[in-house]
Design brief:
This protein is α/β, with parallel strands linked by helices. It has 22 helices and 22 strands. α3 packs antiparallel against α9 (170-180).
Length: 665
């Protein structure tokens, strides 16, 4: 072959420091400029994840250092933000390493004031007051080198990260870390939104260069920073448009004094115009008038979570945001799942108000441990609403089951995208939502009313294709293991079936039955467990069944008598959705429900069959979505049927008898 330049094939690979493998980089089959290679390196997803992990490690180191210096948790993020602001000033950078502690602390405060005065004249004195602790701190303002070394490390470890990843809420991550081990952020009713979710919001909202973005619960500004990034990218280098975006198209409202100072600092660091950050209450008339003057056309918010009965309901913040944006605009909010599932009067009234004035476009059920990094166990959903257009009659709302985002928990680090799965998962979520696709186990469309549960778990069909022979065998073995342990190993276990035949599971021919409608047309008779406090429990041999996922659901053994026998226990709190067959007399606590089957006496074989199917329903339950009797009664279960279209109990019993270990039941 004649060697020609056109025949050259060029592949690009990037191997990050400290890793053993290289990954393909760039699709171009040609050499790039040095700037092109450098930019590709800096913006690489795996490179970002690596740098972000280093940043998180440093946040812990810095947190420990500030703790040793007796800097209160609530002031740590302010100290870091102040240092970052001052480091944008050339004179400060040239002088700070040569000043004594008192001079440096005063120089730091004065530099912060000078930098922020041009953009927050109205609140500058209040903001500077929050930084005042620096000049009076007994160590920072007096001990040689301590403040200087912190500023130097902030410049090396944090400032360089911010310069590379300009539109990432770095301070928000430090805020989470600093408050993690003390009066953490959820204690203030604040749970900061993870960065990949703030970025997801901008995608759901289709943010572009003409968007005017409002966040009425700004916190550290994560939503605004993500929105600003997307808007500036869409501006495609139009500097005049960029300036307009920063000065007129980003609107934030924050009430808490110290958080507002942090917000202003954070937005300054990320190059925002800052003039439209409003200190105040989003329900205040003057604040409302101010916001409306900007004519926002999208709202993104994570409202403070109500922790007491006197707190403002989360849904009130959503309704408020909808009143502030232009008609037909979207408000997207992340709230506790209880907002869309609880049947309390106040929750129902708020949902009714929403539907009377606005359209519920979509609700996405989010990962259970999404806020793990904030030490918050709240289970959340994302709501998408269209402003000032009444929810149409028979309109189908889209419900997505967005439980797996690819993030995993790493000890001493938190939830991270360790396997780099997030981008592909996000793309799949967004494509399915935009096309309003109904996918088993992932999404469904449903006509709803205010009294309904607004979540995918309530409507998605159970995927019975997941039901395999091994599922039944697993439950038989777990039950026998419990019996063996209970009898101190004296039980004889035989790995043999009772029936030497094999039965096929063809769930396509099965029929749906309601759990409990109070008649013999339903499968179960459900009753609530009975409350028995710890102090009233006496020692004995009767199993006390509660909400444990272990030991067949048994927490204790009592001498108080029994409430039930030969039944199925269903945990409605704690390990919600855990089901167990109880073959003996038991006391079922009020943390569980009791299932009896109608028109048939339960036995171990039918019990094993039913609990295996019931466990397919566990996706419907989580914190905020309990297994209360009133909720369960409306569920449906799919079962094999006889020639009369009634539950085929004989088939169920024989199927279990055909499985290994059934001879020991």
């Amino acid at each position: 072959m004649v060697k020609k330049k056109s025949n050259l094939r060029i592949s690009h690979f990037l191997q990050l420091k400290g890793t053993n493998e290289a990954h393909v980089k760039f699709k171009d089959d040609k050499f790039l400029s040095l700037a092109g290679y450098l930019n590709g390196y800096k913006t690489d997803e795996k490179k970002f994840n690596q740098d972000f992990q280093e940043l998180l490690k440093y946040s812990k180191t810095l947190n420990d250092k500030l703790h040793s210096l007796k800097v209160p948790e609530s002031n740590r993020s302010l100290l870091i933000s102040g240092a970052l602001i001052a480091l944008t000033d050339k004179a400060f950078c040239n002088a700070y390493k040569f000043q004594n502690p008192k001079e440096l602390s005063e120089n730091l405060i004065n530099t912060i004031k000078n930098k922020l005065t041009n953009v927050q004249n109205k609140h500058i004195e209040d903001i500077i007051t929050t930084y005042g602790f620096i000049t009076t701190h007994t160590i920072l303002a007096k001990k040689e080198n301590e403040l200087r070394d912190i500023i130097t490390n902030v410049n090396d470890k944090i400032n360089n990260f911010i310069k590379t990843y300009k539109y990432f809420d770095t301070l928000g991550q430090f805020y989470i870390e600093f408050l993690r081990y003390a009066n953490n952020d959820k204690g203030l009713g604040i749970v900061l939104t993870p960065p990949h979710i703030t970025e997801l919001f901008t995608e759901i909202a289709n943010i572009n260069k003409d968007s005017v973005v409002l966040d009425t619960c700004t916190g550290t500004g994560g939503f605004l920073i993500s929105a600003m990034q997307k808007m500036i990218v869409d501006a495609a280098g139009d500097l005049e448009k960029e300036e307009n975006i920063k000065s007129k198209q980003i609107i934030g409202v924050e009430l808490q004094h110290s958080i507002f100072s942090l917000t202003c600092s954070n937005m300054y660091i990320h190059g925002d115009g800052r003039s439209n950050l409003i200190k105040g209450n989003c329900f205040d008339k003057k604040v409302i008038q101010n916001i409306k003057s900007y004519k926002p056309n999208v709202a993104l918010l994570n409202p403070p979570y109500a922790t007491t009965k006197n707190d403002i309901e989360e849904m009130e913040f959503i309704i408020n945001s909808l009143s502030l944006i232009e008609k037909g605009s979207l408000s997207i909010a992340i709230v506790p799942m209880s907002c869309v599932t609880e049947s309390k009067k106040v929750k129902l009234e708020l949902r009714e108000r929403l539907l009377k004035n606005h359209t519920l476009e979509a609700v996405f059920s989010m990962p259970n441990e999404l806020f793990h990094n904030s030490n918050a166990t709240v289970n959340t959903c994302v709501m998408v609403l269209k402003a000032k257009e009444k929810h149409p009659v028979n309109y189908k709302t889209y419900f997505g089951y967005w439980k797996e985002d690819g993030f995993i928990k790493i000890k001493n680090t938190g939830r991270i995208d360790f396997y780099h799965e997030w981008n592909s998962i996000k793309t799949k979520w967004l494509e399915n939502y935009r096309n309003k696709e109904e996918i088993p186990g992932h999404s469904i469309k449903k006509v709803i009313k205010s009294s309904d549960e607004w979540c995918a778990e309530a409507y998605m069909e159970t995927d019975y294709t997941l039901l395999k022979r091994k599922n039944f065998i697993k439950n038989i073995k777990a039950y026998l293991s419990y019996k063996l342990n209970k009898d101190d190993g004296n039980l004889s276990i035989i790995n043999q079936p009772i029936l030497k035949v094999k039965f096929k599971l063809n769930t396509n021919n099965w029929k749906y039955f309601r759990y409990d409608d109070g008649t013999n047309n339903s499968v179960f008779e459900i009753k609530k467990g009975r409350r028995l406090t710890k102090k009233d429990q006496s020692e004995g041999s009767v199993p006390y069944v509660s909400s444990s996922s272990l030991n067949n659901g048994i927490d204790n053994y009592l001498g108080n008598g029994h409430t039930d026998e030969n039944c199925i226990s269903f945990a409605c709190y704690g390990s919600i959705g855990e089901v167990f067959y109880q073959d003996e007399k038991v006391w079922v606590s009020d943390n569980a429900n009791v299932f009896y089957i109608r028109n048939k006496e339960l036995n171990a074989y039918i019990g094993m069959f039913l609990i295996t199917i019931l466990r397919l329903e566990q996706f419907r339950f989580s914190y905020g979505m309990t297994g209360k009797k009133e909720r369960l009664q409306n569920f449906y279960i799919k079962l094999p049927v006889d020639k009369n279209d009634k539950p085929d109990w004989e088939f169920m019993e024989n199927y279990i008898k055909s499985l290994p270990y059934s001879a020991s039941l």
